[in-house]
Amino acid sequence: xxxxxxxxxxxxxxxxxxxxxxxxxxxxxxxxxxxxxxxxxxxxxxxxxxxxxxxxxxxxxxxxxxxxxxxxxxxxxxxxxxxxxxxxxxxxxxxxxxxxxxxxxxxxxxxxxxxxxxxxxxxxxxxxxxxxxxxxxxxxxxxxxxxxxxxxxxxxxxxxxxxxxxxxxxxxxxxxxxxxxxxxxxxxxxxxxxxxxxxxxxxxxxxxxxxxxxxxxxxxxxxxxxxxxxxxxxxxxxxxxxxxxxxxxxxxxxxxxxxxxxxxxxxxxxxxxxxxxxxxxxxxxxxxxxxxxxxxxxxxxxxxxxxxxxxxxxxxxxxxxxxxxxxxxxxxxxxxxxxxxxxxxxxxxxxxxxxxxxxxxxxxxxxxxxxxxxxxxxxxxxxxxxxxxxxxxxxxxxxxxxxxxx
Length: 406
Hints:
This protein is an alpha+beta fold and 406 residues long. It is built from three helices and 24 strands. The strands form six sheets. It has a six-stranded antiparallel barrel. Strand 21 (371-372) and strand 22 form a beta hairpin. 20% of the residues are buried.
């Protein structure tokens, strides 16, 4: 055989050997992958990851206030300032200065805003000048009166002695009467101008808007440059400049159903919870039961006053009121960690509950149970915000996989 053919035959054998090695490596990789997958599946099965999950009802551990056990019934309402005013001007004019803004605290008589009043100031100055002239005229009239009175007395004595003619006596008498009338007219003119000056001063005062009582500015209803008119009578005019309220008069107004009204008394202890401050409870008392009912809702308005006002309490905050069967003691104002008593069950010969850890039910024994109304106080074994199983089934055991029931 020729050397070239032998060489070709040798090359073919090498290629066949290489292909066989590749197939063996593929089989080894496939077998190794199958072994790894089998081991993983075994471990997953042993861990219970593929086991079915149990649907459970969940509840959250939170703070429990002692008042919850003393609550007779609840009502909802809003924080309302009992002294509130939309401060407006009695005069019409353009707003020249605004001295406050939202949140400003003011005292009674403080200047809130000023209107343009150059015309009223000029009118006031004119009347004041006229009043000064009238007072000068009064001095002149009083001097004339004194002179005429002396002459009249002198002529009267001479006429009685028949020394002067009667016509001279009558002339002196007429002059005296004119002097008296002139003095009275001067006094009347002064009174008229004093009244006019007072009116100009009042009108000028209308352009200065002052706080009617101590309070806080809630809203700003007009800006500098806008026209302000009484009752907003003018087109595009603003009636109120600011809205303010006395925060010392804050109360919670709630609509109480007529069926609960016999259980409400003036002075009754209450506890107020604001939606904006859910972790804080405020003590209060029933201040007023408004003596009228709302026929459409079948409710009566009840006003609850705070025992101590907090600067965080603002008007129009929504609130929930708990009407208590008795006042709280000082110690009962502090909340404790609690959860509804329906989480308690029996396992391992004692009471406890199931806490959710990941997607597993973890058994937490509670050998000593402390209750507060419908709540159990777990102590330090739980933390606020943790979830526990509510009304656990008898088949539920520690370590079971669970999910929240819909």
